[in-house]
């Protein structure tokens, strides 16, 4: 039913690159192609190469370089009147904005990308942009608004036999189920995503699915050993492909698993590792979540309750500023979990 996973963001002379190409390999090839296209006076090819440069930098956690590259791609595509390339550049910029925690900007760029992709007739750019909007809403915690869109995108991906997008949609819906306590449904969807990704040789999608399965195995079953084994398998893929963001989230999940098992000193060290990784790539959502885990660990290890309450209050402000509703709820629940008085407006 599903063919081999494809990477449509690698275009033009770079279309032979695989979804599993290491990001350093992608970056080298894309920078060389962008320079060659500029020398040859080919703005369309320059825009496509700059897109690949932007995506490689984004996934490697080099935010500033990614920001420069997607804007270069967009400006070059616009100068050439290439609406399809403009849509892809906007998609890349919107995805980067989401990664940086700038959710209102992500929504604006991704809506513009979807409109531009639709006008250009590029159904793949249009679909990726809609998927980006759905994921941004999910990360924000606006589940009622985006669950139906996730479902529509899943149905379309299944109809087209697009393995990579099917895996993405399954993982997104599974995360909604997990966050709303429907663990069995979430597990089944993460499991299907892992199977499809493995058959389609989508190693990135497979690593994220394993992370989701580890979370469920830990929170639902209390099976710490199995959860850590799944995360170790996923981590190997992240390191092979230089997936900096995915690796940081893997480490944060490992810390979550250790925390649930009551292994607080180990969990604290792992949260600190993830925190450093998120800060290095300027990813505020991951940074805030890693900070929250660290606060909870230190509280369990005997930190002064007043200090814990102050740190939670600060995190609540940070998460409000980013607009992460589900994460803010996690902060509020931490008060009860740690025996602290909840903020007035949440009681």
TrEMBL record:
Cross-referenced InterPro entries: TPR-like_helical_dom_sf, TPR_rpt
Pfam families: TPR_12
Superkingdom of source: Bacteria
SMART domains hit by this protein: TPR (SM00028)
Protein known as: Tetratricopeptide repeat protein
């Amino acid at each position: 039913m599903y063919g081999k996973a494809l990477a449509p963001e690698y275009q033009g002379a770079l279309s032979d690159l695989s979804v599993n190409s290491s990001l350093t390999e992608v970056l080298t090839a894309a920078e060389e192609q962008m320079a060659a296209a500029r020398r040859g006076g080919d703005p369309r090819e320059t825009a496509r190469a700059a897109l690949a440069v932007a995506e490689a930098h984004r996934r490697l956690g080099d935010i500033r370089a990614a920001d420069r590259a997607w804007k270069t791609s967009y400006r070059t595509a616009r100068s050439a009147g290439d609406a399809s390339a403009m849509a892809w550049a906007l998609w890349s910029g919107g995805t980067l904005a989401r990664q940086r925690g700038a959710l209102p900007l992500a929504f604006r760029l991704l809506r513009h990308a979807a409109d531009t992709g639709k006008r250009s007739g590029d159904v793949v750019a249009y679909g990726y942009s809609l998927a980006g909007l759905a994921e941004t809403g999910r990360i924000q915690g606006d589940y009622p608004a985006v669950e139906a869109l996730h479902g529509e995108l899943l149905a379309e991906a299944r109809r087209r036999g697009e393995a990579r997008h099917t895996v993405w949609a399954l993982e997104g819906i599974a995360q909604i189920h997990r966050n709303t306590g429907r663990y069995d449904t979430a597990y089944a969807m993460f499991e299907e995503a892992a199977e499809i990704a493995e058959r389609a040789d989508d190693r990135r999608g497979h690593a994220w699915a394993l992370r989701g399965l580890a979370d469920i195995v830990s929170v639902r079953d209390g099976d710490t050993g199995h959860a850590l084994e799944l995360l170790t398998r996923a981590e190997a893929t992240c390191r092979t492909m230089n997936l900096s963001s995915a690796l940081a989230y893997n480490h944060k999940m490992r810390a979550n698993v250790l925390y649930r098992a009551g292994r607080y000193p180990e969990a604290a060290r792992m949260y600190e590792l993830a925190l450093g990784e998120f800060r290095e790539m300027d990813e505020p959502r991951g940074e805030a979540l890693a900070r929250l885990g660290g606060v909870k660990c230190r509280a369990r290890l005997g930190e002064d309750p007043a200090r814990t309450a102050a740190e939670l209050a600060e995190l609540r402000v940070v998460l409000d500023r980013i607009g992460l509703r589900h994460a803010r709820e996690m902060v509020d629940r931490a008060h009860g979990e740690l025996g602290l008085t909840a903020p007035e407006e949440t009681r």
